[in-house]
Amino acid sequence: MTTYLDVLAELGIDGAHPGGFLLTKYILRKLKIKQTTHLLDVGCGTGQTATYISEKYGANVTAIDIHPKMLEKARARFSSLSRPVHLHNASVESLPFPAEQFDAILCESVLSFVILPKALQEIYRVLKPHGKLIGIEAAYSQLTENEKKEIASFYRFRQLLTPKEWSAHLSNHGFHGIEIAYCSTKQRPVSQTPFTITSTLSEEMLAILNRHEYMKKRYGKQLGYCIFSCKK
Amino acid sequence: MSQRWYDVCCRYHGQIVRIHDRFGNVHIGRITHVTPNRVYIVPVGQKKLGGFGYGYIGWRFGYGIALAAIIGITLIGLFW
Q1: Side-chain half-sphere CA neighbours of A181 within 13 A
Q2: Which residues 54-73 on chain B approach chain A with CB closer than 8 angstroms?
Q3: So where does this one cross the membrane (chain B) (predicted)?
Q4: What chain A residue is nearest to B78 in terms of C-alpha separation?
Q5: What CATH number should be reported for the domain holding residue B49?
Q6: What pLDDT shows up at residue B54?
């Protein structure tokens, strides 16, 4: 069965997270990345962010994803880079890396889709002491249980949390120095992401895209996203 | 195929889009009107044309592009 994530992969959407690539670049500027920084891009998608970090900052970048189409697109993008980005077919729930390897880990709309305790445990394990986790994730302000269920079932979110709940999960898994900001999708300016509908896009995928537009219109006021950073 | 583009154009009515046609042209503008055969856009980032140019319907809605000639439409959106 085709899912929302399959549609994102098929459309090859770069920066498929709230705030888009503009927000990513803003966050990266704050991170103070050096050439010696080891950074893990979790759920790298088409590889736009990992490529940018590698080229702009010359850092050591490792990227993971599990979607075959995304991996294919990321691999193609990384093949032309002067500095290699190490790409792995891996899930954040079971990272194929030794402990304390990364200075920073970036999750752009990933943690909402996975088993959170497993993912946070793994991220904590592979982060160096004082390493940073940065996330941009779906969040909500006010939704009923039924509305949450409808949204989560369409997007296949494993959890849909408030900023406070995100903060609690991070804290429960040992992270500290948690800074978190909530943004509504109705707030301006929200940077958006370009995508192209082609004649080859299947009717099923088009229907999912239409449903996504409907969900945005219906829940735009209550459903937003949060940006957080925390330390090991 | 025209039905697909008709539905897409109706859904994104009012939005700024980039329409690619099979002749290699790229049209950038805001969707103002959709008929079963054509989508009308008002170009953005261009000065208004004075007096002539778009014909009667185009006077209000910009200019029309045949839905049958469309091969792709680029939009902007927010994704989770």
Answers
A1: 10
A2: 70-73
A3: 57-79
A4: A192
A5: 2.30.30.100
A6: 52
